[in-house]
Amino acid sequence: MKNIFFVFILVFILLAFSGCYLDINTETQGQSAGRKWTFIIYMAADNDLESAGISNFNELEAVRYGSAPISILVLFDRSPYFDMTNGNWSDTRLFEIKSAPSGLSSTIYSPCLDCPELGLSRNGETELNTADPLVLSRLIDFAKRVYPAEHYALIMWGHGTGWRGRTDAGTHNNPHKAVAIDDSSGQYMSLPSFGRAIAGKGLSFIGFDTCYGAILEIAYQIRNDASLFVGSEGEILSSGWNYTALFNDFLQKHSLSTADLGNSIQYQYSQRYGGLSNATITQIQLSQVGNLFTKFNDFSGVIADSITTLSSRNAVLDQILHNVEKHFFTTFPSDLYIDIHDLNLKLTAIRANITSDTGRQQAILNAANELETALSLAIPSSWAQNGTTSKIGVHVIPLQGAVVPASSHEPAYIKGSMALDKSAFVENSLHWVPNSVPQSGSLLDKLFYWSF
Q1: 32-273: which CATH topology?
Q2: Neighbour count for residue 238 (Cβ, 10 Å)
Q3: Between 340-349 and 358-378, two packed helices, what is the crossing angle to 10 degrees?
Q4: What's the pLDDT band for 169 if we cut at 50, 70, 90?
Q5: Which residue has the higher pLDDT, 370 or 124?
């Protein structure tokens, strides 16, 4: 009898630390009456963020959900190399978050789920390529089928590089990345691929717990696929969002609306990163992004038309490189992103240096006012440690140093290039992105490729 008892205890311990705690009846997965939200967290941690993934997972389990009308699913893809805890499994597993009895800890408590759409079994080991957009698409399908709710939220978790498009090299060392970087496969999910994966899925909310999420290129790609989008326009620390604070705050709201969710994310981020000088978080109304895209293009076109001399070109470029609020990785080469609101203010302030024509100066002022209105409509709320508002970025050019532009743009950011799978922003831009044959009405052409 003692031996049987010992074996039972040993099996119990092994299961508890395997990453799939089975003391919860997983046969009833998905059952819940009156579910308000189903959250889908796409935790692409098959890279050097694996330990951060464990920490954020534990933050989710530290929340006391009680009878809250929500379900949280986490597709967690781990790495073989960076974290040895919780049984050191390195495959891909789907979990339904449950409150850990001990609160915040370092041990995964929640149960694994069966997911036929992805070939996942709670009792098996399956390695998925989370860079594959079909994995994301099928995960959403599973969540909607098994965890039906009034609203669906998708949170992309992991590394992010912003606008980046597809590469044909198929290697993780290639700089052409976007989200869901998967070291085991050496691949990533491009922005257009992400857009196709979520198109028509009926999401209410999309969040990017990544670097370079709140940029116009991403918002424009997904403008028809949710009502609210939240992200940061610059870098974020590996600790990411504080999920305990996020859901503790959200679950106190009466209506649990999409706006409530956005406000809770913004609140927890401002509390966690209030001392970080470049920290930002932005809520974006996606229904207004088409108008913002148009007004940004119009403003860019007016500036481009006003640049008729080398001195006016240098005045604008000097503002962008030295004075406009910017974000970039501190290792080079690195993409340069600038804040659209600050670009608007800085270029409007020097309109007399851009052109001596008073009619063009008035055109700049008019376009700037329209762009400012579009920003206020598209961004109901944002937070920045430096106190500025309407935080959304846009790509300018890769950098070779802090203020040293590269000699050219990447082909995937050039309209009319032979690059495959260009983003909707690049394909539809009239006056911002460069062209394969430089155009006088493109601001980036005027700044980097035009001869005066």
Answers
A1: Rossmann fold (3.40.50)
A2: 14
A3: 160
A4: very low
A5: 370
